């Protein structure tokens, strides 16, 4: 079939292609093993996103860093930075409009963030060695900030409900 002789059909074909390309869903995506658990210098970053308009940014430098970030819902954002050696971050967001920011530097630090609900915000900054931080927020419009520096500190913040604020600083 020649395209010159079928001008009317080209418009129908173009409309069908455009419509077909906009009907794709996350279920249509196929996981490629070659991209699963991308490893560089014994560091691993695993990102899982289900929903719409979720954003994740990960920057890891140093040896043996571990990061698992999961988002389910819409408009969730995560910014994760790690430097040093043997640090670990696990962040999970379910709902919409949740924001997680984690910055770790040093050695053997661990952070866990779990947010379930709407418009929750968690910000964790750790520097030093052998520090642990956990933030769990379940509800709407909760805010948590953790700043920790030094050696062997532990912070745990858990909020159930709405419009709560928590801040913890250890040096």
Automatic annotation (TrEMBL):
Task: List cellular component terms (GO).
Answer: pilus
Q: Where is the signal peptide?
A: 1-26
Pfam families with a match to the protein in the record: Curlin_rpt
What species is this protein from? Answer: Pseudomonas abietaniphila
Q: Name one GO biological process term.
A: cell adhesion
Instruction: Please provide the record's keywords in A-Z order.
Output: Signal
Annotated stretches, region: Disordered: 87-116
Name the record gives this protein: Minor curlin subunit
Family under the similarity heading? Belongs to the CsgA/CsgB family.
InterPro entries named among the record's database cross-references: Curlin_rpt (IPR009742)
